[in-house]
Amino acid sequence: MNTRRKPTQAESLGAGIVAGAVEGFITYPAEFVKTKAQFSRSGAGEVSRQNPPRARSLTMTEAGSRFNR
Known about the structure:
Blueprint: H1 9-39, H2 52-62
Helix pairs in contact: 1-2
């Protein structure tokens, strides 16, 4: 006997919105640092190969945290 009810469309929509917001909040900083490292350039048009921890450190030094503003 299955007593669980199927979620309504509004409940499914709400759950999807919350899940998407949490996912974006968690993954955005890592994606930002990764993208910045991929497109950073050193002198003379040469691509700089930064590892992610170094790129994160430089990003925090240059831009700071949004929470500190």
